Amino acid sequence: MSLVFAAMTPHAPILIPNIGQASLKKIDATAKALGQLEQELYAAKPDTIIVISPHGVVLLDSFLINLSDKYQSDFGQFGDFGTSLEFRPNLRFAEELKMSVGAEMPLTITSEPNLDHGVTVPLYYLCQHLPQIKIVPLSYSLLDYPSHLKFGEILKNQIFETNERIGIIASGDLSHRLTKEAPAGYSARGKEFDTKLIELLRNKDVDGIMALDPKLIEEAGECGLRSLLILLGVIRKVNYQTEILSYEGPFGVGYLVANFKLK
Questions:
Q1: What is the pLDDT of residues 93-114, one digit of tens each?
Q2: How many domains does the chain have?
Q3: Model confidence, pTM
Q4: Which residue range(s) make up the domain with 195?
Q5: Which of 26, 76, 28 is nearest to 251 (CA)?
Q6: Which end of the chain lies in a sparser environment, N or C, as judged by fewer CB atoms within 10 Å?
């Protein structure tokens, strides 16, 4: 059955209704796009979702798989003590991935039942009608960009060897420097980065993304490029069409919702 769904989503805690409250009106386009993506995922009938997060343990020289007997999460650190989530692991797929990736690239295994918001904010929206879904949480590394693309290619091989229906989500925000009120301060190059990246995604230009100016990437202050490169490593040789569902940045951080529609 293999790959049935691929998408990139933001992971801002403000998207959780108990946290965002009235501020959700300012990112209504993002919330609606996530709702549309949820319908797409439900229709794909996945057995397992792989989520690549920037906010787990990020190692200098190794990718990471989080293997736990169960996963849970709440948003208490953001002031929401009423919203909680639980998920089941796909231990067999994760173990097989450990074997296939570990033979070619540095890979570390951890066991942490408490999930970070880079995993849970997307899943809060996308899995509302998938209570039995299994997940595989991954963290990218600080290795170079070609290593992330290669990791995705190895991951794709593992996905296409399984009999299960697999979805993959690249969790990440774009520039954190879009406005003077942005958490990382303002840079005119933040908007430049976001505009260029979205254009390259529309054109399915993976080589163009790999060739982005390192100074532009650094100035943008993004956190989603490495997640995206792993996903692109999975789908770059698959027939797909990029559908940009929404992009906005009212709080100084670029929120992109993109569906990579598989054909």
A1: 998 888 888 778 999 999 999 9
A2: 1
A3: 0.96
A4: 2-262
A5: 26
A6: C
